[in-house]
Amino acid sequence: MEIVISNAPFNRAAALALRQATFVTERGIPRDVEFDDRDTPERLYVVAYQRPELPVGTLRLEPQSATEMRFGRVCTSRQLRSQGIGRQVLQAGEAWAQEHGFLSGLIDGELTAKSFYERCGYQVIGEPFAEDGAPVVTLKKTF
């Protein structure tokens, strides 16, 4: 498994393709909701590749302040879920954030994924709310 963190066109394309398959096609989230103004050419994406031509997991790095990083749009290929890819992608994003001076991470995770994020060391910090038609909760981890 190779993990790439960059805004290079190939990496951005891989991240967006995974999100199209996961959130738009599989989950039915409208494409104009899924792909927003935070998907800029400068945005960094963490992408796990099973092979150079096969991206299998991704997340978007979204700095919230000089010390807090949001890990957004986390997803894994449907066929490869529950194999640790999401954890690897998240750990790579966390390591990058720590290396760049961030002290904590935030995730707005669907309630169905809450236990996954808790196993990764995140704690719920707010009440559930609706986002893109699904119940979501904000979780935080201090590095």
Explain briefly what this protein structure is:
The chain has 143 residues and is of the alpha+beta class. The chain has four helices and eight strands.
What is the count of DSSP helices, taking H or I runs of 4+ residues?
4
Give the distance, in angstroms, between the N- and C-terminal Cα atoms.
24 Å
Give the proportion of residues in helices.
25-40%
Shape: globular
- Major sheet: 8 strands, mixed
Mean pLDDT over all positions? 95
Total strands: 8
| Beta-strand content bin | 35-45%
- Rounded radius of gyration (Å): 14 Å
Structural class: alpha+beta
In the predicted model, the low-confidence regions spanning at least 5 consecutive residues are none
Order of helices and strands: EHHEEEHEHEEE
Describe this structure in words.
By secondary structure, this protein is α+β, with helices and mostly antiparallel strands. The protein contains four helices and eight strands. Strands 1, 2, 3, 4, 5, 6, 7 and 8 form an eight-stranded mixed β-sheet that branches. It is globular. 28% of the residues are buried.
